[in-house]
Each structure stands twice: as structure tokens, then as C-alpha cells.
């Protein structure tokens, strides 16, 4: 399929609709109905209607859409949305690497990840790498904002924001049960129960996920995971007819994970022979995490036009990723990233890692990447709207005070390798590898004004961020943190972030929108680390004609300074220090379309959805990052780990008793080091085409049988070369189960 032709066809379609616009009398736009305030505490959009009427690009995935494929892998969920670039890592979506419109994808650190409107990275200001990611199984909807439509949300305003809306308290008594089991002994079970009364409501849910994994560890062993997730919500509220309606919502969430995940991949030669192999040197690797969230939300609705919502929150996350970091023996040493890139230079070290070479001494250095995080704060926003004649006004004002912290207390253990088995030789002392605390305090405010007159909607706004960052490094010789070797540094950032969006609705079938806003991402604890800065533009059209609906958007992000970070996850040392990368241009096209071939049939539907993303991201200056995936950069080099072409197609057949869904996605090749021209074989991740299918048979109104197949064609494909070596995508997997609703 020629992807450029698809894009050209959609652009041509939008222009054709403009020239043949319907002359029927327009219906009154429902946005002028002042009976409801659209502001909702935990949602950015709330519906597809709101997404279609933003003055910037937005996408809303409903619960029904999330349930179609029964995806538990967030990479597969977000892969359906234009403008989202992802590279996988573990095949299950445990720790995704997400980019919106060409932002750096490493650990999703340059976008705002939220759950119920609250920042969810473990420490979103002081250590924004998303080593915790919310469980999509328990989500009611997923909202993605890009361009000027996300100026309200920060601190990262370049690419956009992704908000996960968790299961809400139901209006009536409700029970949901679902479970599936299949390949690699993978189990996914979910249950919830909830109800609402006149002045009280509740909802409790539990999700269990586990798998033995699809990779084959030398000498045997699991390569999967075990995860638990519990959420409880309670609400008390006044009577609906109270003079000032008020509600108080409490949310508690707890999750834990133990996953046999590693940073160690495969050499090119081994990947070509056995792509699902895992070397013996990764047999002790384990990620162990716990996450807790508390939220308390107060809503006061003074009348139909004015509402204030205030949320206090606290997130705690602790994790220890115990994993092979480097190898040392016989006077040689190498990081695992360098070793797998150059195995011929270190035959002894590589032999120890793959288990073919015995070594009695301490050679395999496993790092306890032991860290604890918290983030807490209080945020409030008020919305007031009114009419003056034929002009609709809406004013939203928001304020947030936030604190977060990353506490590193790490050490290294030494193992030998005998007959393919690792044995602990040298137990490290906690705190002797990395022993430091980084914290942040941030005050953020925003104002967004919406003006609607006739067919035109304007939304000017601005955001302000005041950020104070501090790092205290106690050093490897002060594990008791007495401060005798304390090294401190700090940085303060003040940023004013304006933006404006516009939407012009020609009629009920065609509209144009666009905007310009400032892109920003905060620097680190060193004053010389300038914040990421860009000016971002977008221009698009939405159409809906004879059942064919869609959107085409062009975007251009002009970076004056792109920030890079030293992540171990991208082959770096893992200090998280940031560095200035200078000027970068990111431009592209996002297109989506939907059509139901049986829209006139009352008993069946056959909807088709298409989406395409073209992204061109290039550096505009020379520099040597000396870190991770960028390497030595020249003017004109492409930014690595960004596919130029991505395409997704979904086709469904839905009847009263039966439904079937197919989803196909194409992800173009991308380079793993900055460069231009043809991609060298050892710096490339090849393109792939993956098909997933699912089906449901509804035995009764309350009970359904389910099945789904991941990677129907059993395609063997690579997804990344980081953290160290080539990594495979999920192979063929088949799963069956049930759903019960009451």
C-alpha cells in the first residue's frame, strides 16, 4: 500500500468537500447550550463530541473501542491514534516509550502522562521518566491532546498530554467480570462492583495480570510478569436540588509488579537465528515495584454556569530493577550496550554473558536500581461561561502547587558464571553506587478563554510555570547520609507559555482549525541546562459527509533548543542529566477517516477506520551528545527512534449476537543513531506489519464469550536496539475468555 497516496487522497477529499458544501440550513451548534458546564475534574475531553470541536488536535478512545480488541498492551491501544510514535521494549507494554509529534520518546518523559487529570509519572518534575505506567485494563477512556488544544496541561507543552480516565462510580448497581487465558500461560482477569444512591456512591475493582513470557531463557526460567491492581472509589454528595450542589470523591489505588525483565537484548547474529532467546546472563534480572495513589476531589456547582473543582493528591512509587549492568573479567570491562554492539571485541566477556564461558570470579555486575518516589499536590480549576448577545464566553482558570522527589539508594552485586548458572560472589553495600535525592517544587497556573461567535471559535490562553529543582548527592562513601561529602546543586525556572487556537465551522460537514503555541519542557538541576523551547504550529480540517468522517492535520514544531537526557534505558550511563541539543525541526501530517459500509442497515454494521502519520524530525546543528541513542549529530541528521511512516486500519463486523474486529498496523523503519541517508544495518530497526483479530459471541445480554489473537501472521520483528541489543515484538498468541455484566 502506498502510504503517501493515502495521505494525498484524504487531503483531496477535504478540499473537494469544501467546494461542494451543503447549502442546507445549519442547526444550532450544541456548544451554545448553557445548561451544562463541560468542565469535569478527571477528564480533559469527556466525549468524542468535545474532541471534534476543539480548536486543536484531540482524540478520544471510548470504553467500547478499548474493549473491542481486549488489548492489555498500551502500545497497541495508542498505535491506533495518529500523531503517536512508540517504540516497544518488552512485548507486553509494561514500560512504553511514547512520543507525540516527534518529542523524544525515551520513557515517555517529554509528554504529560495523567490519570484522572493528575500527573502520573513517579516524579514528573524532578525525574520524569515513566517507569510506572497506568493499567489500561481498568480504564474507561483514553484522551490524547496535541497542539494548542493542550496548553492547559503541563509542565510539558510541546507534544501533548495523554489522560487515562479510570472506571467511574456507576449510576446504578453494576457488576463486571471478565477473564481471558492463553498463550505463554497468560492470564488477564478483572472484576468490579459499584452503585450510587441519593447521597453516596462507591466502586471497587481488581485486576490480575500474569504471564510466563514468550522469551526463552538459557537453562530455563520465566521471562514474564505478575501484576495486581486494586482501586476503590467513594463519593458523598448533597441532594441534586441543593442550592449549591457539592460532592466529595475519594480514590485509592494500589498496584504491584514483579516482572522478569532485563535490559539485555541480543546481538544481530543471535537475533537472526533465535529472536526470542535470552542470554544466561539475564537470569537474575527482576523488576519489583509498588505504586499507591490517593486522591480527594471536591466539586462545587454554584449554578448551571459556574463550577469549581479542587483535587488533592499523593502518589508513592518504589521500585528496584535488579539487572545486569556491565561485565568485568581478566582486566577487561564493558557496559552491556557496548558489549552487544561489539561482541567480537570482548570474546571472554560475551562468552560469560551468553553462558558459554565459565568464569569463577565476580564478573557479572548486577545493579540494584533501587529508587523511591513521591509526588503530591493540590490543584483547582474554575469554569464560568455566559452569553452576551450572540457571543458565547467561557473562562477557565487553573492553579496547581506540586512537590515531587526521587530518592536513589543503589548498589551493585557481583556474580560468576558456572555451567550457565549465575552465583552471587560479591554482595554490594546499599547506597554505594548511587546515593542522592532530587526534589522539585512547582507552582503552575493557566487561563483559557473561549469565545464563540457564529461559526468561529477562538481559544487564547497562557500557562505559567515556576519550578525549583534541587539535587543533594551524598556520595558512595556516606551510606548513612551524614552529609560529610554532600554535593548540592539547584536550579530555578520561570516560564510563560502562551498559545491560541481557532476553529471555523463552515457547516455541519466541514470545519477548519489551527493554532500556535509555545512548547516547553523543564531543564534539570544544573543552571546551564536550558529548558526545552519551541514554537509549534498546526492547521487542519475535519469533515463528515455521507457517513465518511475524518480529520487531516499538518503540524510544524520549531525547536530552538531540544533537551536530551542520559537514560540507561537508551544505552546511556543513567545519570538522568540533561543536555542541550540545539535546533530541531519536526513537521508532519496526521490523517484519520472512518466509514460504516452498512450504515443504512439496522441489524449490522461494518465500520472501517484508517489513520496515518508522517513525521520528519531533523537536527539543525552539529553536536556530540556522548550519550545514549543520539550519538554524534550533524546538521540535517534525522532524530532517531521516530518512524517517518505509520499506518493503522481497523475493520469490524457487528451484529446483535456476534462481533468481530481486525486491526492492522504498519510501522516504518527507523534509525537508532542520528544520521542521514540510508540507514546502516547495525543502526536500524526494520519496518513491520502486524495484524490482530478479536471476536465476541453474546450468549445473553449479560454474558459473552471472547477470543483474540495477537500477531495473527506470526511475524518475527524487531522493536528496538535499546537498552542493550535487539529486542523482539510479541509473537503469535491466542487467548479465550468471557465477559459478564449485570
Q: Secondary-structure map with pairings?
A:
Blueprint: H1 3-19, H2 48-52, E1 58-61, H3 63-68, H4 74-78, E2 84-87, E3 97-100, E4 112-115, E5 118-119, E6 139-146, E7 160-166, E8 174-182, E9 186-196, E10 200-211, E11 216-217, E12 225-237, E13 245-259, H5 268-273, E14 277-278, E15 286-303, E16 306-329, E17 332-335, H6 336-341, H7 347-353, E18 359-388, E19 391-418, E20 421-426, E21 434-453, E22 456-473, E23 487-505, E24 510-521, E25 532-545, E26 548-565, E27 578-596, E28 607-619, E29 623-624, E30 632-633, E31 645-654, E32 658-667, E33 670-671, E34 684-685, E35 688-698, E36 703-710, E37 718-720, E38 727-728, E39 733-741
Task: Write up what this structure looks like.
With 742 residues, the chain is mainly beta. Helix content is 7%, strand content 54%. The chain has a 22-stranded antiparallel β-barrel. The longest helix is centred in the N-terminal third of the chain and has 17 residues, at 3-19. Mean pLDDT is 91; it is low at 1-37.
